[in-house]
Specification:
This protein is mainly α. It is 74% helix and 0% strand. The protein contains nine helices and no strands. α8 runs antiparallel to α9 (183-200).
C-alpha cells in the first residue's frame, strides 16, 4: 500500500503468527465483524490475553491481516511480472493471469480488500488506509504499464490504466459473487481487445 511506512505494525512472535493465520482464515471466510477475539484465540490455541498483549486491539489484528495479504499478493504478482515477456502488452496481461491464479488458490470469496471495505468504510479506522492504499497501488501499476505501451500519449495511457483497473476490479468482485464462470479470464480477454484498439490508433 502506498502508506505502508506510516502504518503501525507489530513484531510477529510465533504466537502472534498463529493468531494472525487463524484471524486471516476467519475474517476472510466469515467477515470481520462476525469474528470476535475469543474465536480467534480459540482457533489459534492462544489466550485472549496473549492476543491483546501481542496486537493491542482487534483493529490491529485487522490491519495485520490485510497488510499481510497485500504483501503476499504483491510478492505473488511480482513473480508473474518477472516471468512475463518484457513487452508492455504481455506484462499487462500477466497481471490478469496472476489474479486468476491467486483467486484459484486464495480467493474463493473474491477480493479481501473489497470485502473488508464493505465492513470498514470509516477513513479513521486504521485498516482503511491498507484497503485504499492497495487499490491505489494497483491503479498506479496499471497506469505505469499502460504508459509503456508504444504510441500512447500520457492522457491516453492514463485513461487506459484506469480502464484496465476497472476491468480487473470488476472481475474480482464477479469472482466472489460467482455470477458467471471465470470472470478474470473474461476480463483478460477484454483487456487484450482493449489493447488491440489502443495500439491501432
Amino acid at each position: 500500500m502506498g502508506t505502508s511506512e506510516e502504518l503501525r505494525r507489530i513484531t510477529m512472535t510465533p504466537a502472534a503468527r498463529r493468531a494472525l493465520a487463524a484471524a486471516g482464515r476467519l475474517f476472510y471466510d466469515r467477515g470481520i465483524h462476525a469474528v470476535g477475539v475469543d474465536l480467534i484465540a480459540a482457533e489459534a490455541g492462544v489466550t485472549k490475553k496473549t492476543l491483546y498483549d501481542r496486537f493491542g486491539s482487534k483493529e490491529q489484528i485487522v490491519v495485520e491481516y490485510l497488510a499481510d495479504r497485500d504483501e503476499r499478493w504483491r510478492a505473488f504478482l511480482a513473480e508473474h511480472l518477472d516471468a512475463a515477456p518484457p513487452a508492455p502488452r504481455a506484462r499487462i496481461l500477466a497481471v490478469f493471469d496472476a489474479s486468476r491464479a491467486w483467486m484459484s488458490d486464495n480467493g474463493s470469496k473474491g477480493c479481501s480488500m473489497v470485502n473488508a471495505h464493505a465492513e470498514i468504510s470509516d477513513p479513521a479506522h486504521p485498516a482503511h488506509a491498507v484497503i485504499t492504499g492497495q487499490k491505489q497501488w494497483m491503479l498506479d501499476l496499471f497506469t505505469r504499464l499502460a504508459r509503456d505501451v508504444e504510441g500512447l500519449g500520457p492522457d491516453a495511457a492514463d485513461r487506459l490504466g484506469r480502464t484496465l483497473m476497472l476491468l480487473h476490479e470488476g472481475a474480482l468482485v464477479a469472482h466472489g459473487l460467482k455470477v458467471f464462470p471465470d470472470p478474470v479470464a473474461h476480463a483478460r480477454d477484454e483487456a487484450e481487445a482493449l489493447l488491440d484498439v489502443a495500439t491501432k490508433r
